[in-house]
Amino acid sequence: MLEATSSLQAKDHCQVFPSTLQGKQLTCTNVNSTFFLEFNIALNKTHWLKCQSCNLSTLNEESFNIPLRNNIIFLELTQSGIRVLRKFAFKKFPLLRYLSLRNNTIDTIDRMCFSGLKKLIHLDLSRNFIKYLPSNLFNDLENLDILNMTKNHVFHIQTEAFAGLLHLKYLYLNYNYLQKLEENAFKHLTNLKILYLENNDIIEIHPNAFVGLRNLNFLYMNNNSISYLVQYNFKGLTSLIDLQLRFNKLREIQTSSFNGLINIKSLQLGDNEISFVKPYGFIGLETLEILELVRNKFTFIDYFAYFSHMTNLRYLWLTKNNINNITFYYKYETQDSLLVLDVSDNNLTSFNYQLLFNYVPNIKEISVANNPWRCDFFIYMYNFFDEKNVSVCTTDSCDANFTKTYVDDICPVLHTTEVDLEESYDFALDRTSSRYGSSICSLSGVIFTFLYRTLVI
Question: What superkingdom does the record give (predicted)?
Answer without folding.
Answer: Eukaryota
